[in-house]
Amino acid sequence: MRQPDIEIYLKDADHQAITAWLEQAIGPCSAWQQKGQTYKCQCNGIPVTWLPKAVGKWHSLLLESDTTPWADDLACARAAFAALDVEIRCAPGGWQEDESEENTDRWIRISTDGKEDIVWRTA
Which superkingdom is the protein from (predicted)? Predict the structure, then answer.
């Protein structure tokens, strides 16, 4: 089942690399529009939000659509790692409002070590 949106966290990535990857994977992107610390653009009609340093040195990339080339966060994380060669983190599945506290710290890490389940305390 496809997730309604995609969110991944990237370490040490920048706008130019992200834009180039998104254009290759999705299609043409509009110019980034900055509002406070948040950047937004559209890539082939998909709303994209980039939040630098959303969690420490980790940058958040949110694709607000279920029509991306990826069915879920993990598929996107794998593609981002392959294209950008930076460590990526994502949730192991869709996030639920009533999710238990212990599950909110469960994440997947994609790096040169492969795929790992980790505990990442973001709060």
Answer: Bacteria
Helices within the chain (DSSP H only): 15-25, 73-84, 101-104
In the sheet with 88-90, reading across from the earlier edge strand, the strands are 33-35, 38-43, 46-55, 58-63, 6-11, 88-90, 106-111, 114-119
* Inter-residue contact 70 to 27 (CB < 8 Å): no
Per DSSP, what are the bridge partners of residue 17? none
**For the whole model, what pTM was predicted?**
0.90
Q: If you write DSSP's letter for every residue of 56-76 in order, what string do you get?
A: TTEEEEEE--S-SS-SSHHHH
User: Can you tell me the distance from the alpha carbon of 60 to that of 79, in angstroms, rounded to the nearest whole number?
Assistant: 15
Domain residue spans in the chain? 6-119
> Cα separation of 66 and 3, whole Å?
6
**Is 81 in a helix, a strand, or coil?**
helix
CA distance 63 to 3: 11
